[in-house]
Structure formats: C-alpha cells, structure tokens
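Input record (one chain):
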Amino acid sequence: MKRIEKKLKELSQDNQKAFVGYIVAGDPDLETSLQLMHLSVDSGVDILEIGVPFTDPIAEGPTIQQAHDRSLENETNLQKIIDLICKFREIDTNTPIILMGYINNFLMYKDLINRSHELGVDGVLVVDIPGELSLQDYGIDNQDLDIISLVSPTTSKERVKEIVKNSTGFIYYVTLRGVTGSSNLDGNEIEQNIKYIKSISSIPDKNSENKDFHEVSDYISNMKDAIR
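The corresponding structure, as predicted from the sequence alone:
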C-alpha cells in the first residue's frame, strides 16, 4: 500500500481528516526547509506538500509567489529538493510527501521523477496541465507515484469525470475562484461540487488553502477527507 493511501485510511479509521501542510522548498534556505518539514509533522501535519519553485507561479497569490522568488534566488532546483527529501527520510519514513509544481519543473528532470519514489517521494501534483492528460503524455511514467489532479469550481462535470480517471492518491479540489489566498468562498458551491466528485469516485478529496482558515476549516472538513 502506498504511503498516501495508508495515511488516509489510518485517519479515516480513527474518524479523522488529514491535515496537509505546504512548504516552498528553499525558502528561506534548504536547511531551514528541512527543519520546517520535521516541525510541521511534529505539530500535527499528516501529509507534506513540497512546493517546487517556479519563475511564474500563476496559480498562487503574492505570499507564495514571493516564497518562490526567494527560493529561486537561492538557486533551488528539483535535484536539491530530492536531496532534501532524502535527508528528511533519514528520520521520517512514514509521512507522505507530494511534490507540487509546474510542468517545466518536472520535464527538466524526467529521469529523476521516474525514480523519485525510490528517493522518498509519494506523489506529484502538476498545476498547469489539463487534468484529462496523463503525465505519460509528457514522458513521465512512474506507476509507483500517485498523480494528483486539480478540480476547480469552474470545472465542468464532463471534465471532472475524465480528470478523476487520471487521478490517484486524492483529488485536489480548489475551493476558491481566484489565486491562493483569495477570500471569495462559496460554501454551497463547495458542498455541491464535492458531493458530485464523491458520487463518481472513491478517491479522497482535499481542499486548497484558504486565508480564512480558522473560520472555514471546520465547515469544509465536514465535507472533505483532507484540508490544506
């Protein structure tokens, strides 16, 4: 059983939801990133999302954009991030790790991604490709990695059906219309869309980050299997 599936099953058996933490690797530096990864787990994070810095993170708000910029100034790349994960695995072999980034990040290191499961990576989330497409179409073929797809409030039901077919691990549901950190939350829309996803898939679903986390996390977690 893969680490993501195992973690979600364990939490579900205890009637708990997964808390997913996000860190941009290399911000402010890789050594601090390693400390933050362990600190996050010690503080209750169940799954780690490691952001791979990119020059134009179009899906992100200014806070995460600035984190990407600082990381790139430190010349962080995917090889260094994999090395970071290997160091993390020297102590923690249980916490699932997902690489979250843009397709160019991964195309430059296809060979590395294709064996990254051997180095401690459990899943990949590519932000800027259509969810209907398989990473195999881009030359990335690693059956030991969970490939996590995005579904947004504006995704049609026809597209959701196709995206679900390509997804493993969990479905990443973007709760907001806008970049990360926006505040235009529509609770009724979220509930209806999640019900539909669950009706056509047994894969768990997770919501994206929201700046009003303390106000909405309890509400959203009643509908979802994980929250970020």
